[in-house]
Amino acid sequence: MKTIYLISCCKEKLPTAAKAKDLYQSEGFKHRLSYALFQKADEILILSAKYHIVELDQVLEPYDVCLSNETVGEQKKWAEICIAALKSKYDLTKDKFVILASEDYYKNLIGQKRIENYELPYENSIEPKIANNSNFSKVYSYLFQTKEAYCDDCLSKLTGVSPRQQINQLCNKNSNSIYRKDFGKCNYCSKIKIVRFI
After folding, report:
1. H helix or E strand, kind and range, residue 138
2. Burial annotation 57-83 (CB, 10 A radius, 16+ → b, else e)
3. In degrees rounded to 5, what are phi and psi of residue 97?
């Protein structure tokens, strides 16, 4: 059985084409992606209102389509295309799908003859808890998955490890695992600062 995370897109995007994981700019999307990266997922996919099922490294042009603004019929048609794409790669009755999205995105994906084994971490809370991870493993996992460099301020924001000074302490204590560059560009805020990377 595979575990697949499905993350909804967002309105805020870069103005030019980019990999899907970088295109979406809202704090909510970044949090959902960070949460998924901390988990033991076999795959992480994005639910795009325009492009349907999208891989993280798939390059997309920016767009202005919001699923909640579509008619019921258009939402159902969108879901049918998504289901067909998922069915071609996964077993919708046995594989587990963790859906990090609002109801507009998941309501037509779950149920009879659709995704049957699913979890909705956002259903009863604004933000799911990142469980069973020490603060160090949260930071290490994020850096390992993204393969990018981040400043302490942004790592604190992206991983939920606070106060920010704890990032500095964790990274300095584990300098053999997490490296430091004094004048590097942070992949999140784009500022030249001390950055951490693997």
Report:
1. helix 135-146
2. eeebeeeeeebeeeeeeebeebbeebb
3. -115, 125
Match 């008619």 to its residue by tokens.
71
* pLDDT at 132 exceeding the cut of 80: no
pLDDT in tens, 103-128: 889 999 997 779 999 998 866 544 44
**Residue carrying the six token digits 């967002």:** 10
* Paired tokens of 6: 């499905």
- CA distance linking residue 109 with residue 43, whole number of Å: 17
* Cβ-contact 137, 39 below 8 angstroms: no
The pTM for the full model equals 0.66
Q: Could you report how far apart the first and last alpha carbons of the chain are, in Å?
A: 30
